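Title: Request for sanity check on Substrate-binding domain-containing protein prediction

Description:
We are preparing a figure and want to confirm that the structure record we downloaded matches what your pipeline produces today. Could someone re-run it with the sequence below and paste the raw structure tokens into this thread? We only need the token string, no images.
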Amino acid sequence: MTLADVAAASGVSVTTASLVLTGRARELRISAEAERRVRTTAHELGYRRNVLATGPRGGRSQTIGFVSDSVTSSGWAADMIKGAVDAAYRHGFMLFVGESGGDPLVERTLVDAMRDRRADGVVIASTHTRAVVVPDCLTDVPAVLLNATSATAVAVPVVLPDEVQAGRSAARLLVEAGHDRDIHLIGAGASRHDSPPQSIAASERLRGLREVFAEADVEVAGARWCPKWTPEHGFAATAALLSEHRPKALVCLNDHLAFGAYQALAEAGLSVPEDVSVIGFEDHPVASWMRPRLTTVALPHHELGAWAVRVLVEMVVRRARTPMIHRVPMPVREGGSVAAPHG
């Protein structure tokens, strides 16, 4: 299969096909439709550029490929990449980073490009924990999923935040502060423990919360499901709760919900934490802007990136068998939003 075959099947010139497959399509104003047609055709025909065909074979290249669904649009993705870069440098590797935008075809093209350059291994990263389809082109190169699980039976090690332990930590903070009643959840309904739909983080945080509350014989008084974890939905859910009942503590399943809850409490004339304690998850920058600063359980993005590279290096350098699941601890970020219940 040659470049000329791809060009002919795509209905473009060989030059255009070459520019698309070397990543210069947008630079030279090739239309998005033509670019997608060339990439789709190349994939269907099984065409792969062998950019190092004339170079020496054998040995390691000391490079790692890192493919993320988001780089430029997310500070969290940047933190994961920084952690991966730092770890790669410490182990004598160079990191090549690509952004797929969540497009499986672009992801496949990026992985192929990294394999063509003989990357010793590849990290497939997701900004938000989710199930992903592992590209079938990764069957012959060491690979690690970062902040993601495999949607298929492909056996690839995964590196994930320890969301269950995060839920335990949040519940323990409230129990140790003396809260044993009038605790309400914001973000998940009483009968919908998987909210938002298909959210791995939600179900695991709830599992950890329920474990500690059950051990302490604390019953959650109520829960408000939110279709999205945004400040607007956090505000609406908390305002609806306050119209019926005054809680002693709110467990918000992320910091954006907590931000909305703060606003609803303030409008009701209630203070945090004097009247109501509030705790969140993720340690989003918004948590540090809130007054008092929100107590939250942090997603360790830098450490997640570093951990993924360490696992991959073990596979590449030592050819070691590694556990299939690696859980990275989520630390508590103490703020001033949790206190002993009054009255």
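Thanks, this matches our download. The longest helix spans residues 301-317.
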